[in-house]
Amino acid sequence: xxxxxxxxxxxxxxxxxxxxxxxxxxxxxxxxxxxxxxxxxxxxxxxxxxxxxxxxxxxxxxxxxxxxxxxxxxxxxxxxxxxxxxxxxxxxxxxxxxxxxxxxxxxxxxxxxxxxxxxxxxxxxxxxxxxxxxxxxxxxxxxxxxxxxxxxxxxxxxxxxxxxxxxxxxxxxxxxxxxxxxxxxx
Length: 186
Hints:
Helices cover 29% and strands 16% of the residues. It is of the alpha/beta class. The protein is elongated and about 60 Å long.
């Protein structure tokens, strides 16, 4: 990677030979192009992600429906909620969200996060979930990373894609968006 772009792709041996001065980072598991969360607006504009300081009162799970309607939501609260929701998505290997956003605070949070935004036709089925593997839909991956593509990817601590489907986004150890390491499991 150089900045926000992938400058070369291949096996570790090929890349080490072609770029002997490059910094090498190694993590357990498989490198993927990351995940696309198909429920972007549902999770960021139709759900409130409580602040940890609100856990005693509101819990830690996203609030929707009547629970959301009972909250006094202003632009600042929507922005903070969206940032927390995005952090939770990144922790599950999401590098792009699908949908169109209309809440100005959410639009700003999404733009500043660097996460990709892809279009979608209509509202997807399934159940909105921070982990795309738990949404009840076929999981979508961005195109594979190659030379010249955006530096967005995720590493999952699994042996292969079958184990990834079994264990889900919770097996994510690293997420990179716009060339920045935005999530690393400790």
